[in-house]
Specification:
With 377 residues, the chain is mainly alpha-helical. The chain is 60% helix and 7% strand. It has helices at 2-11, 47-59, 79-85, 87-95, 112-124, 129-145, 149-163, 169-178, 182-194, 196-199, 203-211, 213-258, 283-295, 305-320, 332-339, 344-361, 371-374, and strands at 25-28, 31-34, 37-38, 42-43, 65-69, 73-77, 103-106, 126-127. The strands form 3 sheets. A 3-stranded antiparallel β-sheet has the order 1-2-3, with no helix packed on it. Strands 6-5-7 form a 3-stranded mixed β-sheet. The radius of gyration is 38 Å and the shape is rod-shaped.
């Protein structure tokens, strides 16, 4: 009987293990997730704690602070909560003269609803998405004035990832400067530079021209500076492309004169029909140039532009070649001797060209053609 029970137990399927406990709050790529459910706004606490603190704020249970806002608005709060959330409010409450246990604060210059959203955040560390969209600028100012860095970071994040546009970027840029938000000001500055034509036609830009002409002048100067840098980057890219093409032409020249390529090469080269394909991209153009150079009747330097180009390539090769005694490129040794008789001005010009070409290819200033490369294989 016992054996039968043991056999039946061994054949039964073990129950699945319960899931591991996870954090009450987690972040997901598509948004904030709390207890497996997506949040509508921003939060860094659990749902239970959030609901508890929001009930305390909404009910005003044993509140001891009266906050006066514009249009005779009144918001009730708790001194302990405000003092712990904001060091500025703590100092204001300590200096406040109230009646009995009641103390008062005044927050003017922003809508009452924005103040209520701000005070609610001090309780629950949460904000609704709709409230953030409506009052993000007011909340940024309040979080800066009352030193609430957590809310300030969230306002910057919301502006950077969706609420910033070409219509409001000028206003937000000025506000970021006033509220000491360097990252936000940098993001705004980049958007202004990238979309300057559209931004400069906005109402915010026109208002800034009247109220902050110095800032407008600095932005225009930065746009001009960025345009100059962009042109300089394009110029350097084109220059680098030219140096890379020269480098490839030097490689192809040695390849043609030493190994031969398809139908052109040294006189003692035996070309085969099943010859492997050429891996040098500059070979085709250089082959045409070499054939022209070999048959041109105006080969004298300066008379034919194509031949002049060939003479320059041969001279450049000679300045890069490590050993002209074993080099198979035509006139390599002749140019080596000619270099010794050149003027200092020409020498400096060629030396700069070689240095820039080597630097572009990042070969650390080493000899362009080693003896092994220049010698026949």
């Amino acid at each position: 009987m016992d054996d039968a029970c043991e056999g039946s137990l061994s054949k039964s399927v073990a129950p699945a293990a319960p899931p591991l406990p996870g954090p009450a709050t987690s972040y997901h790529q598509k948004g904030l997730v709390m207890n497996g459910l997506p949040l509508r706004g921003y939060s860094c606490v659990s749902t239970a704690a959030k609901d508890l603190w929001e009930r305390l704020f909404d009910s005003g249970y044993k509140a001891d602070v009266t906050i006066f806002t514009d249009y005779n608005g009144i918001i009730y709060a708790h001194a302990n909560v405000l003092g712990m959330a904001s060091p500025v409010m703590k100092g204001m409450l300590n200096q406040s003269k109230g009646h009995g246990r009641w103390r008062s604060l005044s927050i003017h210059g922003v809508p009452q609803d924005a103040v209520r959203v701000f005070i609610r955040f001090l309780y629950s560390s949460c904000s609704e998405k709709a409230d953030m969209e409506d009052y993000v600028l007011h909340l940024l100012v309040l979080s800066h004035v009352f030193v609430v860095p957590q809310l300030k970071r969230e306002c910057e994040r919301q502006l950077e990832h969706g609420l910033l546009s070409t219509e409001n970027v000028v206003d937000i840029f000025q506000l970021a400067l006033l509220c000491d938000a360097p990252r936000l000001s940098l993001v705004c500055h980049r958007m202004i530079l990238k979309n300057f034509k559209v931004v400069s036609d906005s109402e915010g830009w026109k208002a800034m021209m009247q109220s902050h002409p110095v800032l407008e002048k600095e932005l225009v100067e930065s746009v001009l500076d960025e345009d100059h840098k962009q042109k300089e980057r394009i110029r350097k890219l084109k220059e680098r492309k030219i140096y890379l093409q020269l480098y490839e032409a030097m490689e192809a020249l040695v390849h043609i004169c030493r190994d031969g390529c398809k139908t052109i090469g040294p006189h003692d080269k035996d070309f085969k029909e099943d010859q492997a394909p050429c891996n040098y991209t500059a070979c085709k153009g250089l082959e045409l140039l070499v054939r022209h150079f070999a048959g041109c009747r105006l080969r004298i330097p300066g008379k034919c532009s194509h031949c002049k180009r060939m003479w320059q390539l041969l001279e450049l090769h000679s300045r890069l070649c490590d050993d002209s005694d074993v080099c198979r490129v035509p006139l390599c040794r002749n140019f080596k001797e000619r270099i010794k008789k050149q003027s200092k001005k020409d020498e400096i010009k060629w030396k700069k060209l070689v240095e820039k070409m080597l630097r572009t290819k990042r070969i650390g200033g080493a000899n362009f053609f080693s003896e092994e490369l220049a010698s026949p294989s």
